[in-house]
Design a protein that fits this description.
4 copies of one chain form a homotetramer. Chain A is mainly α and about 100 residues long. Helix content of chain A is about 70%, strand content about 0%. Chain A contains 5 helices and no strands. In chain A, α2 packs antiparallel against α3. The two termini of chain A are about 35 Å apart.
Chain lengths: ~100, ~100, ~100, ~100
């Protein structure tokens, strides 16, 4: 998800504040959805134009927020994200065969 | 976000199907929000109980979906997620000082 | 929100199944977000084209799901939605003055 | 959805600012999801405790925002919400029979 170094930092950030008790899997999933909506807000009225540098920085921080919460969830539920992503890619390959799904 | 190896795989998956044209930053942000809600659905009626192994696998695949879309967005907008996460952690440390935010 | 007649029906639907205990304000808010994402899913890859009749029916049912959960929340928290909407419109009028916000 | 009087007001609010062009069905659906997440934010860390009066007012305005966007969507797509809600209730009654779904 995020680097081991960053994971260490966010886990330390949380434990230093005794916030683990608020971070139930349900509350983290709620937080992922909230941060995902804040990310989406940057595109609410845009018509697919590329964001400028200032917008890109704000967008990058929203992505970071989503990634941090996903990292907490993977850590707390003992999920190996990269293993699951690799499995999901194989599932998607079978679900969307190139010959049927290739857009020309 | 995800490993270089997995990033290569999802980018190849997308390009083999010529799906880049659908993956505008706005549409990817929409997809992140949709997948985040599918993740949240697994906790909709649960009262903070820990998920069982079967639920955990389904949850892990939803997290993978969110992570894959975030990876596309970081790739397409040329965002260095781990750099931004590291910056965001420093911002959060200043925003939530331990001495004021520590929950006892 | 929805008609008094429909509100009666959804409250009866819930009480006949003893589901009030699951309908905490938090769980209903989670459900509103989940249903809103299911509504959004119908537009995930569309480029602002108008939905056809079949899509419109599916969209209408997703809107109904969001409306039903909002109605439960207003009922359970004793919120007069139309009064609040009227107040919000006045707030928005001050926040977005026509002379400054009119798009030409 | 909302009263005819309020619907008139929000449609006038929008037309006075020439904002219809931004209100594609897709952008309204995006806005519903964003406002639903702002509603959810009020419950992010709460453990199912009832909101106090100050929180209830803020929650009511978030619900109003969701309802206003749903009303625009129903208006623009010519959807009769109450008819669809009534149909959805009948669908749910068949999907969740009392005898099988009653929680004791």
């Amino acid at each position: 998800m995020i680097s081991k170094d960053n994971l260490e930092k966010v886990l330390t950030f949380r434990s230093e504040r005794n916030w683990e008790k608020f971070n139930t899997p349900k509350n983290i999933a709620v937080s992922v959805a909230i941060e995902a909506a804040e990310l989406l807000e940057h595109f609410q009225w845009s018509e697919n134009s590329s964001p400028n540098d200032k917008e890109k920085q704000a967008i990058a921080y929203e992505i970071a927020d989503v990634a941090i919460y996903l990292s907490y969830l993977c850590n707390d539920l003992d999920i190996d994200l990269n293993q699951r992503v690799a499995e999901k890619i194989e599932i998607n390959k079978k679900k969307y065969p190139v010959e049927q799904c290739k857009y020309s």
